Amino acid sequence: MFNGLVNGAFYALLSLGLAVIFGMLRIVNFMHGALYMLGAFAAFALGQLLGLGFWPSLILAPLLVGLLGVVLERGLLSRLYGLEPSYNLLLTFGLTLLTQDLVKQVMLSRFAVSSAPYSPPEVLSGVVNLGFVVFPKYRLFVIALSLVVCLVTWFVIEKTRVGAIIRASTENPVVTRAFGINVSGWVTGVFAVGAALAGLAGVLAAPIYSVEPYMGAELIITTFAVVVIGGMGSIMGSVVTGFAVGVLAAVGAAVYPPIANTLVFILMALVLLVRPSGLFGLPEGAR
Amino acid sequence: MNKTRTAILALTALLLAPAASAQSLSDGSIKVGVLTDLSGVYSELSGQGSVKAAQMAAEDFMKANRAYVGKVSVIGVDHQNKADVAGNKAAEMIDRQNVDLLVDMPTSSAALAATEVARQKKTVAMVVTGATTALTNEKCNKYTFHYAYDNYMLANGTGTAVTKRGGSSWYIIYPNYAFGQDLNRQMVSAVQENGGKLAAPSDATPFPNTDFSSYLLKAQSVRPKIFGTMQAGNDLVNVVKQYNEFGLKKQGIGLGIGLLFETDVAALGQDAFAGAIATVPWFWNFDARSRQWAGRFEKAFGKKPTWAQAGVYSATLQYLNAVARAKSDNSDAVIRALEGHSFDDFFARNATIRPQDHRVILDVQVVQVKGKSESKEAGDIYKRLNTIPAAKAFMPLSENKCRM
């Protein structure tokens, strides 16, 4: 089903960020859903306070979220490297709860609503008749832009010198540092980019879903499932699986609605039985 | 000699009866417990505003009845929309804080849990914001009263009005839990009773859910006159947003809404809802009496009241008035004063408390959401289409399954 691609686009963008952060930094970032929500909230707030429209927000909001990513990584997460992964899991989970409630307070006190409207830009409002289906223009734009962003991210990490440095920094920090490369700087950068991707997904989601403090909470669970199916840390895996899961859920919803939300977890269980490292993941030993 | 003294004392007691009845309150005071959602999805439409409304009712009552009651106080407690929390909090409020009345209770499951506790502890509960008809049917009990609205009243009002105005074919979606299933059943039968039909069988959607595009695409292909949504709160906001995004209105598919709150319209903007028909027990600019109270509330709380908050005020005041009539806060005495009582206040018009099932029946309003350009002032969102008289608005006793 065609409209599944839209949700697929959000899954792909989010799981891409998660995969980048996990693949490079080994951080299970439970805050990703909150970052997505902050992206949407930033777009809404920029519009309300500064009168900025959709296009400036599309650039500015992810930058702001990325900046917050820098603060988070430098200020909190970097202190936990070397400890068990469950520490950063707990930290990011706690931060999520804190962020959600903070945003709720701000929305209620500053904007007098807890769920806010946000409209797509004029050029992209309305529908187009694709022959087989009448579809909102804005959703087509979301699919296209997400595809481009996913491909660019994949290309940078897998095919360029920058990508090589990043991979080296995380694979073997000591040796990389010996080459005169600022490893911790790159690590911070990677986290910021992952956060910005979540922020971008948030801005894109704002005109489709209502902007509310808990909008990331549900999505993040599915996104984690997508990352696991695709293979923890595999970039291509999370993009392909993201889109595929979106389509699958839409088909599921059309055929048998109650199963739509469960389908992804059934798929996850099946994949883990057959290929424990995920569809695109490498077996543990090969890393 | 002793006999004379006793007689004189008895006579004095009789003469002083009105003043002395303050002592007949169990602990010299009445305590109202507003059991509500102070932090979650329903906190805007009830929450702190409901607590404020109950406080206003308490103050008004104390001013009007200075002669014979003790102090009325109000506490607000958060039940987080969870049945288990609601049950625990209800028990705690009654046992430890000596609450005499539980009021509000959004979320059907939470309302059912709390009223069950109130029944065991013989405390009066007035459900204002919970919607399920079970409260006055299979789950009815002597201590529970259902105020303001329920699923039958919503479906009956909106299904009838929309179908009679030309909405002859429907495609309905509903959230897949008790409230949604119940509301869908009631809506389907209201549509069919008025000569309408279903263009496709209703679909259950996951709850909660953010993306409704599959159902909207289905609506495009089955082409009903009316797309009916039984979603509530944030899910409703998402459905309506996407209904507009997919351009269904332009394709001639109208919108029928099961449960609509003022806060939903505020969240999405009036124009997104414009033309949609819903049934409400009350709205703030209904008439001069309503506006007058709403003005007081806005001054005290900073926002216009929702009908849930106005309902909490009305229910609290009616309970307190019953305490005054009964001259006691003993639950059984208050219930005797409530049963069969007819009244009319700014919120509940032509209201009667049915003794058979404790359903409080009142006139309800079928409204249509105005476009922004039709609004005369901030918050002017509803155009009244017609009033359904109390006797016709709620489930008739002949269909009622209550065994009290």
Summarize the biggest pleated sheet of chain B.
5 strands, parallel
Number of helices of chain A: 11
Give the structural class of chain B. alpha/beta
Q: How many β-strand runs of chain B?
A: 16
Gross geometry of chain A: globular
The oligomeric status of these chains comes to heterodimer
The percent range for helix content of chain B is 40-55%
Q: Which strands sit side by side, in order, in the main sheet of chain B?
A: 2-1-3-4-5
Query: Ranges of chain B with pLDDT <50 over ≥5 residues?
Result: 13-23
**Mean of residue pLDDT of chain B?**
91
For the largest sheet of chain A, list the strands in their spatial order.
1-2
Low-confidence sequence ranges of chain A:
none
Protein name (chain B): Leucine-binding protein domain-containing protein
Organism (chain B): Deinococcus sedimenti
Keywords (chain B): Signal
InterPro entries (chain B): BCAA_transport, Leu-bd, Peripla_BP_I
